[in-house]
Design a protein that fits this description.
This protein is an alpha+beta fold. It is about 25% helix and about 40% strand. Pfam families: BTB_2.
């Protein structure tokens, strides 16, 4: 059969249309031999190849033949059945990849935000199980500082004096620390720290406002709030825990 010819398969009653070349990706497979009428399991009926197997699982096999990658839904759980189907079709490279089930299953990504008040300042510490997520989040957060006259916690952003961006503290690849608010300096001078979180362009000094924007940013990024708790009532430390399902990288032949 010419590799550009269209082939129609009916797998358990589910119809698939593809190129012959797609089914010939692995010449030793039963699907490749089927095209030469070399496998009695496949019946040619009215121009369509019929095989009495699971049509839903065959859609994943077709996706593998087209992309040479294994990419499964987040809630997929039939690894053993799909591996059995791959073995039936003689697609041993796919069966080998499916045997690495632990690499294909989505992992839970955990992120924790700790928030505390001390006088006129608010302190934040973000810890995440995925260093890439923490790095991306750190790139969105900017802290600005400057000395202001007569500033207080709720004073509006001063436009008359320039602010200087400060680097965030990064104790490790998995956490980031920053703070906002005002700290008494000398006379009527205050050191003020403002926080901006992209794509929001505001510079916020109130810790509660910064916390609200940070939590909203995480929710929009696909995280789900799973718990809140007070870590230390004396030091007013609150902890917000989030989780997100994270897909593994596709395994490819």
């Amino acid at each position: 059969m010419n590799n550009r010819e269209v082939v129609v398969l009916s797998v358990g009653g589910v119809r698939f249309v593809t190129w012959a070349s797609t089914l010939q990706q692995f010449p030793e497979s039963r699907l490749a031999r089927m095209l030469n009428n070399d496998d009695q399991e496949f019946k040619l009926v009215n121009g369509e190849f019929f095989v009495d197997r699971d049509g839903t699982l065959f859609s994943y096999i077709m996706d593998f033949l087209r992309t040479l990658q294994v990419s499964l839904p987040t809630d997929f759980s039939d690894y053993q059945r799909l591996r059995r189907e791959a073995e039936f079709y003689g697609l041993h490279p796919l069966a080998d990849l499916l045997s690495q089930e632990h690499l294909l299953k989505p992992r839970m990504e955990i992120l924790e935000v700790r928030f505390s008040f001390q006088e006129m300042q608010a302190f934040f510490r973000i810890f995440g199980s995925c260093s890439t997520t923490v790095e991306t989040l750190a790139e969105k957060i900017t802290v600005f500082t400057g000395q202001q006259s007569g500033q207080s916690w709720n004073s509006p952003f001063p436009s008359q004096k320039p602010l200087v961006p400060l680097p965030l503290e990064r104790p490790s690849h998995h956490d980031v620390i920053f703070q906002c608010g005002t700290d008494y300096s000398a006379g009527d001078q205050f050191v003020a720290r403002y926080v901006s979180i992209k794509p929001d362009n505001r510079k916020l000094i109130n810790g509660t406002n910064v916390l609200g924007l940070l939590l909203d940013t995480l929710l929009k990024d696909g995280f789900r709030l799973i718990s809140t708790r007070t870590v230390s009532s004396e030091e007013k430390v609150e902890c917000y825990s989030f989780e997100r399902m994270r897909r593994p990288a596709c395994l490819a032949v």
